[in-house]
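tool=predict chain=A
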Amino acid sequence: MKKLGLLGLTLLTALSLSACQSNSTQKSAASLTASKTTEQSTSSAPSHASTSSSAVTTTDETPDAILKRLITYTNEKSAGPTQNYYWNNGKAHLSGFETMKPADYHFAADEKGRSGIARAVLTFSEFEASKGARQGTPLDPPAWPKNSMTSIHFGLTNRTYHGFLYNRSHSIADSLLGKFSYRSQYNFTTGTRSQNVGADQNGGMRAAEELAENYWKTHENSDQTIQYQTTPLYNGSETIPRGSVVDEKSSDGKLDVEIVVINDAEGVSIDYNDGNEKTGTAEPSKAPETTQSSSSVATQDSSDNSAPATANGWTTAAQGMVFVSKSNKYYTAVVNPSNYQYVSLTKAQEMNANQGRSNAYAKN
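tool=predict ok
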């Protein structure tokens, strides 16, 4: 009887251990399956997030893909994915700098006589020397069209710009290259006002320029250099570029970026063969606007359509209108109008602007 009891106890213990081991194995297998599922989910999530981010902020497209995208945006009169007339296309893609030294620059026409690739090896001293005042007078780019007064309503800011449609847009800015940026007409393209400064004065070409400017502000008196390259992109034989690709890379690698700028204006139909506005709303100006600069901040009072007149190198405000500078001084005539806000005198006074003293670039 004792032997039977002992045998039963032994069998019971064995069955219990077997059940425990079975449960442990099943738990382990379940845990491994869950782990694999989690790993697959985690590994696919970044890929999805990366794709989503690329579509909105940063991409890495080829020149052909960029041009195709620019044609789509400009045909749609779109401000692009940032709503500010530019997007980030990843790291810089530079060429032609092998023999260039610090402070060297090169501007040339393309095979059709249009402004081609502009290159410069920028230095801090050029940036420093350009501070305070424009270093020259913008030149007419090839095929500079008849300029017109127009209206551009910006979706990003919900504000409307009234003024000249086009700027003589630097490929390499005054603020970066100083007086040397005026040495060739091939450093200028016909750019819309929005291509030049975007919807909020910090987009378009300004977005690219500010990246280099901000680098110098954190590397004062530095021996570093920036390889800076701007490539206008044209559709076939059109004379007005659909946009530009700006590549910039510092010698220490801290700055390494490619910015694509869109050359159009929301709500404005442009014929890129000759620059004419297709809509019937544009009013031809007596003379084209004479300015573009990386520091330009021109806007026009959206409630007033009084156009300024240009003669003998000076642009004179219409009666009751003035030009307001960044230092909050107002003038009745200026040499470079898009360095100023063009507003009514009443508006200037509301802004607490004071009458400025006449100088070589502005007068009362």
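The longest strand covers residues 115-122. DSSP finds seven helices and 19 strands in the chain.
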